[in-house]
Amino acid sequence: MSTGSTNDTQMVIITGMSGAGKTVAIQSFEDLGFFCVDNLPPTLLPKFLELMRESGNKMNKVALVMDLRGREFFDSLFKALDDLAETSWVAPKILFLDAEDETLVRRYKETRRFHPLAQKGRPLEGIKLERELLEELKGRAQVIYNTSMFKPKELREKIHEEFSNNKKSTFTVNVMSFGFKHGIPIDADLVFDVRFLPNPHYIDHMRPKTGLDEEVSTYVLKWNETHKFLEKVLDLLSFMLPHYKREGKAQLIIAIGCTGGQHRSVALAEQIAKHFEQDYLTRITHRDIEKRKEKST
Description:
alpha/beta, 297 residues, 9 strands
């Protein structure tokens, strides 16, 4: 009997919010040649592992959807995941699909479907309950996608990029600037508030510029409190990032927020990303940097 190995066996558990794109995700894994099972009850996971072992290499790429449609089995999910983590021949990866509440409500209205936890009530009630129930599971996920702004094609592309081969994915540090008045990024792992720093917005000729402009960046970075903040944050992140990587996270999203997401957060996000680019695959996003232009037009 073949026992397989962690080097040639992939298992992805797809879960997350109802309406966040699990159907598109499972189709994407089918396209990648994964053996896919939709809505597998967690209590059947041990039996499924036996089938995988007995199949030899015929089931060495597996994707399983587990969600609240099987909520009568949901209490056993964490035990199943703990047991799976102790398995020596397969290293499971949890893909958690999320979306903002407004997006999920809109999707339910467009499809005229009922939320599984709010069959007779408002979709938002079911969404809030589901988010609470899934909080611990989201914390265990190695890969989290916020699909609020994704078209189905974009979600497929993300999955293909992440899971298209058997190599261990590179740990990615995503640094994002944002404005608190536009909302905290729902997919952020760490959020730092820099609204305590001097604001270039109140200097007339800097107001239309952003933290990508040298004059604004120089202004933000010249203050003693900015230097102290960067020193402490970079020291903290330098300690934390290796531990996140060791625990198997595929990416970490670090969000830096100021009031509008134009000046302070942009300049500091650039500094943080630059600091870690030598040691990690680093990406930077300025979520709200164009919001003023959009509003003016």
